[in-house]
Request: fold
Amino acid sequence: MNLQALVRPNIWHLTPYSCARQEYSSGHATVFLDANESPYNAPLNRYPDPLQRELKQAVERIKGIPEANTFLGNGSDEAIDLVLRVFCEPGVDNVTAISPTYGMYEVCAHINNVAYRPVTLGAGFSLEAERVLAATDAHTKVIFLCSPNNPTGNTLAREEVDKLLERFTGIVVMDEAYSDFSAQRPYRLDLTAHPNLIVLNTLSKAWASAAIRLGMAFAGEEIIELMNRVKYPYNISLPTQQEALAILGREAQVKEWVQSILAERTRLMAAFARLPICQEVFPTEANFFLTRVDGATRIYRYLIACGIVVRDRSRVELCGNALRITIGTPRENDALLDALKEYKA
Ligand SMILES: *Cc1c(COP(=O)(O)O)cnc(C)c1O
Reply:
């Protein structure tokens, strides 16, 4: 891979902002008069570590990816935006993605004035690598993939993903926000074999910490260095770094939560399949499932009136009359089933 040919020239030649906490990072100083901070209200008076060393070491213990291959962002959404800003020249370059998928790839592309080329998934929401490749041209810098995919819930066939990794000369982003719920081998473990791969993870789903905003990107060192150059210097607040360390320290608890969600997923999907309004329950490896029903929008509104919010995906490509149901606690799932049993078509 020729990285320089893929990166925007202004980013390749950028001299990044050098912040006080970066210029002085080691040693034994106890008096900090370098950053115009207040000496009061510790620890919130101090700027946080711009490269989040301690947190990255904790991430490495869980995810097995070294610090130098890890970028931490204000949600995965920051990483998605940075990939576009590092690689795509506005008004010139384009990106390709599967459809339907997570909406942020398209929104971030449009914010950056980067053309977005969605490629409709095949039967069973499957990835067809040849059709994705056919949508690319010399200005296609990035392909966005998501597995398990949102909103469909299925994983993409490894064989097809590997075709893209091997034959596409640009960057392949694999968003694995839901990989903790899946039995598939995570793509982050294949990073060394694929220099053009960027894998996204998040604390927002299985790690039950959407409020703190912490996303991860794993990639080759040079790509990580480019993302670090472009990000805001202090992109992860101290409270977020502290809360992230705390939840990463509770891995056993998180695994129990995941097991409970998976057991409930099985129960809820089976119960849905028996509902008269339900036409189809699609296979899933995430903490949600997609279901085709009779009159999705009407059911959606009925559930709102019952105080239950699900996601109406019926206007999304391939998702006519589909609702996306997130797995809740056993009580929440029962509330949903009880409401649907009372529903009159
Ligand atoms: C929920 C979700 C995310 C999480 O984004 P954050 O900004 O980390 O909260 C990322 N990708 C996909 C596909 C998602 O569904």
Q: What stands out?
A: The first helix runs from residue 3 to 6. The first strand starts at residue 70 and ends at 73.
